[in-house]
Design brief:
It is a single chain. The protein has 104 residues and is mainly alpha-helical. It has a domain at 8-72: lambda repressor-like DNA-binding domains (434 Repressor (Amino-terminal Domain)). 63% of the residues lie in helices and 0% in strands. Helix 2 (23-30) packs across helix 3 and helix 4 (49-59) crosses helix 5.
Amino acid sequence: MARPAIHPGEILADELQELGMSGAELARILHVPTNRVTQILNGQRGITADTALRLGQWFGTDPELWLNLQKSYELRLAEQEVGAEIQKTIQRRLSSTYQEPMQV
């Protein structure tokens, strides 16, 4: 069974809940529009590099953590949407050297 796609907004929401903070408060701290944080928390917007830098600065984490959460989410979605089709239609390379497909 495929792992579920967890939007980084869910993780951010958990962090804010533990801190007893609202999205609007976080938006003020990060100097971003409230709707940016609200959309992230609602899973309607992804975490950009700019937002990752701001979250990293405030939480004291590496900004790559936030970007990696976003990329992991996107990869899980892609696996769910097209992963099986890709596995069926693209053969894995078996040799250490590339060989042109045979022309018939």
